[in-house]
């Protein structure tokens, strides 16, 4: 059996109730990236306002001692992935994220960087969803139609990062 | 402007908290179908156990004075639609329902029956979702991948039959 070089940090959500952006997991991020990584490639595709999202992420990563480049500012997204030291895919709408990864031809190149080159991958929320086999278990609304529900397949199972038990006291509907 | 013969009853859900199957809307169903309709064609595709679902629906419609044929028991689903006096599409998973409608080639034939022949259409939950332009606004989990999110387009807008305001007191996550 082949041993794959996977270096993954899969976070359920970017913010805990009452805390700041990535505050609850900042120590894990620093420990995970270590001192070798200097710059992180950020993928803001899951949200509509990419500029604003990149600003938020840049501010946080710079406070932790890392430079941040947002892929939406790169002339060639594929080349940006090929040159990256580490990738961070943020949360938002999982359908919008996966569709944009396909539209920009990024699925195979990200897989190559993770499996063959062993660069670190951080995902949060939708960025964790797309790291799995498929997005068939997302809670998100299908606001756009990706060419497939198959995702990056960095782990051999699916994840629902926002699972909630059903509310036994709800009177919203009956069954079905 | 062309006037289309649309005869639609779109129900949000099949059961109200504490009530029986279709109990909360049975008077509306009888008023809507009237005395001309004798048999209803039931589409159980949104649930996995079609036999069980058809039994539940048949029991209810027979109690209201209508015969019920389930499309999953027909040798030719397209022919079943062509011969139907009225159509009832029940709730369950909207992705599973829409995919099966496409797989069986039923989208154009149902549209023809509604728009050109003016037969009555009843939808509940997922059956209401697929009556709209598309399922882009469903709350359901994408457990299967339909060939499109475009739906029957019986009305010129989308519906979210199970909309809930967000819970301002939730501490489940932060933002994003």
UniProtKB/TrEMBL annotation, chains A, B:
Signal peptide region: none
GO biological process, one term: proteolysis
Lineage: superkingdom: Eukaryota
GO molecular function, one term: serine-type peptidase activity
UniProt keyword annotations, A-Z: Hydrolase, Protease, Serine protease
SUPFAM superfamilies, per the entry: Class I glutamine amidotransferase-like (SSF52317)
InterPro entries: Class_I_gatase-like, Peptidase_S51
Pfam families xrefs: Peptidase_S51
Matches recorded under NCBIfam families: PRK05282.1
Annotated family: Belongs to the peptidase S51 family.
Protein name (Swiss-Prot/TrEMBL): Alpha-aspartyl dipeptidase
Organism, scientific name: Pyxicephalus adspersus
Native organism taxonomy: Eukaryota, Metazoa, Chordata, Craniata, Vertebrata
């Amino acid at each position: 059996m082949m041993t794959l070089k996977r270096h993954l940090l899969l976070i359920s959500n970017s913010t805990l109730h009452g805390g700041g952006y990535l505050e609850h997991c900042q120590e894990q991020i620093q420990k995970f990236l270590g001192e070798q990584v200097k710059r992180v490639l950020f993928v803001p595709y899951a949200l509509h306002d990419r500029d604003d999202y990149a600003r938020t992420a840049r501010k946080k990563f710079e406070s932790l001692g890392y430079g941040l480049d947002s892929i939406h500012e790169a002339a060639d997204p594929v080349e940006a992935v090929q040159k990256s030291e580490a990738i961070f895919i943020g949360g938002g709408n999982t359908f919008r994220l996966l569709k944009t990864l396909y539209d920009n031809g990024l699925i195979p190149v990200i897989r190559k960087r993770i499996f063959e080159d062993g660069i670190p991958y951080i995902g949060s929320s939708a960025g964790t969803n797309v790291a799995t086999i498929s997005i068939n278990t997302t809670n998100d609304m299908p606001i756009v139609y990706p060419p497939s529900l198959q995702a990056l397949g960095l782990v051999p199972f699916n994840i629902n990062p926002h699972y909630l038990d059903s509310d036994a006291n709800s009177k919203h509907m009956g069954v079905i």
